[in-house]
Amino acid sequence: MRFYLATTNHNKLREFREILGDVEPIDIDVEENGSSFEENALIKARAACRLTGEPAVADDSGLCVDALGGEPGIYSARYSEVGDRKAKILRELQGEVKRSAKFVSAIAAVFPDGEEFTARGEVRGEITDKPYGDNGFGYDPIFYMPEFGKTMAELTPELKNAASHRGKAIQAMLKQLKARGVPQ
Ligand code: ITT
Questions:
Q1: Where are the domains of the chain?
Q2: Does the predicted TM-score (pTM) go above 0.90?
Q3: Residue bearing the CA closest to ligand 1, atom 1
Q4: CATH code, 3-179
């Protein structure tokens, strides 16, 4: 089935398309004032469904750094100015030995009949000492994945999609759609 994806982030859109194929972006202006990834994903997907009258999905995602008490978390897109976000994390972690972190993606699916659900994907890794790699986007260059011996920005798009928080959340969403008998 074809979905509207409520996002202004073209990298997210690209990754959804690489995995799902036919996804139509919709630019919605809505305040993400929820207190969890799931709440913010629902806010975006509900707004898109209301606007289009069609099924809509949205992803809310971010990086949670253990030594920073889970920050930036749901504030990952607003953590610092564009261009300084990775550097800010590296500054905050200077001299810190505990470098564990996770990427989280929550996807909400909302249907015109009022049905809605969320699906979550997570992946654990380590924050590097400096950025490595040019693929991906956002915090990918500072997120080291021990199972690959590489940062997420050093993975091919295929590998990132197979292993990432977003890839896992999309697979979990597809499973729920199938269980609900929604044609795919
Ligand atoms: P929309 O809300 O319009 O979809 P956004 O970029 O504002 O786009 P979020 O509010 O979900 O999206 O913020 C997620 C931020 O977390 C994103 O801007 C990146 O900085 C970071 N992020 C999420 N997924 C990531 C990934 O796969 N790789 C690297 N950074 C990621």
A1: 3-179
A2: yes
A3: 7
A4: 3.90.950.10
